[in-house]
Amino acid sequence: MIPLLKCSLVLLLTLLAMSPGYGQHLAPLATDFIQSLDKELKNQACFPFDHQERFNWHFVPRERKGPTFHDFNEQQKAAALTLMRASLGEAGKTRAEAIIELENVLREVENRPSDDSYRDPLNYHFSIFGSPDKSNDWGWRLEGHHLSLNFSSSKGTLVSTTPSFMGANPGIVLSGPQMDRQVLAEETNQGFALLASLTESQKKIAKFSNEAPFDIITSNDRKASELEPKGLSFSSLNTEQQTLFINLVQVYLSRNTAEYLKKLMDRINRIGWDSFSFAWAGSEINQVGEPHYYRIQGADLIIEYDNIQNNANHVHTVLRDLKMDFGGDLLQSHYLQDHRTANPVIAE
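Below the sequence we write its predicted structure tokens.
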């Protein structure tokens, strides 16, 4: 796995300001993908921007809309992967591809046949919402087991990359050729590093339960809500702890393109890091068999991490944006502009 940048916040922002953005390139890449499809696959892949399917997201194995890698020829597969990679930062690309590859490991762990379709690295679905164009509101989704990536663009600018879910089962590969592989290692290890830095009095505030919840609490809700308890505030951390906190947040935000990461960092710096908090539940021991959970809230963002299933070797992580999930107000604006005579109902 390609390591994430380890640098000061000032240096990170400097690098971001120098980095080229990718938001303006997504529309032509999505168009290339659509044009590579035959009529039947286009009908499967394409939806109106305001279609209720846009909010029908999840991260478990289930039936889904949209064609998969099974349906694509080599040209179509290449166009799909190009769109995916252009929509993510280096850390996001690395994780997304590794999560897809983990389906092969899980197939072996569960002693499934080689042609099993329940654990299948080709069973990831591509959907386009709206008409990809620099003058339009549009979005796209890649989704399958342990991966749900949702992107929204407006007038040539990427305005939302959430909900964004990434999971790993097994969290740590315990046997076989990929033994000790840990796709979401930084999310785990940096969370424990922050917890370990806390004093006992700080832990009493941060830790809200000795039992970890069974899954991320925001689940696959259409709209995420701010969660309680808020835990330990950023302002109550010392300088070293604040650095650990910022590094942990950056692990999640750096899954995005440099352009969108800068957008999020600008928001955080405008609202202030003091809006953030850190909460923990479950075990304080970083090893398989010890269920644990944490969440971070601030600047209208929610990060959740949960590891409890399969003897606490099954990680779920999500980034939600309280204001901009699925593009935020884009959908309402779309209705006002394009459906003035209609009276649509937005599916919740």
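Residues 1-22, 339-348 have pLDDT under 50 and may be disordered.
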